[in-house]
Amino acid sequence: MKQILTLVASALIVVTVNGGLPPRGILAADGDKEQVIACEYAWAKAAVDGNATKMAGLMAEDYVEIIMESGPDIKTSRWATTNKAEWVTLVQSGREKYQSVELRNLKVFFHADVATVTGEYSQTGTKDGKDIGGTGLYVNTWVRKNRNWQVVSSVFP
Question: What stretches of the chain adopt beta strand conformation (E)?
Fold first, then answer.
């Protein structure tokens, strides 16, 4: 009980000192939301333009794309992953091409220097000659490094 009271008292002190606001590191700076959304659109445009260099510049070195694979041919759903080098190479070589990518209903959630973006997408394109067009939901995670936002992961459920 004493530990709980100490924890509550500590939380009240933090709230009182900060005027009822969470510590500054938890809040997004002015313009961060707009910057992250601009990065989302720039990254989609780079893919459509086939600009692998621009795409790579918006991606962290440890980027991973995570896609859930399921369907009538797959008995158990599974996660497929692609890293930055693999995806950039696919676009650079022309093996993966996008004719269009549209993003809608974007929402940005901040956790200090991490931004989680949820949204809807529609795309037309091909990978190794096979249609990869579709619509769906996605989640991108962006991290601010040296004042720039870089995407570290994308999840397509």
Answer: 59-71, 74-83, 96-111, 114-127, 130-131, 134-145, 148-156
Phi-psi region of 147 (alpha: psi -120 to 50; beta: other; left: phi over 0): left
Q: What phi and psi, each to the nearest 5 degrees, are found at residue 82? A: -135, 135
Q: What CATH architecture applies to the domain 26-156? A: Roll (3.10)
pTM: 0.80
* Residue listed under structure tokens 């009271």: 5
Q: Are 124 and 99 in contact (CB under 8 A)?
A: yes
Q: Residue 50 in contact with residue 94, Cβ under 8 Å? A: yes
Long-range Cβ pairs for the range 17-20 (8 Å, 24+): none
Torsion of CA 96, 100, 106, 111, to 10 degrees: 30
Query: Mind listing the pLDDT tens digit for each residue in 68-84?
Result: 999 888 889 999 999 99
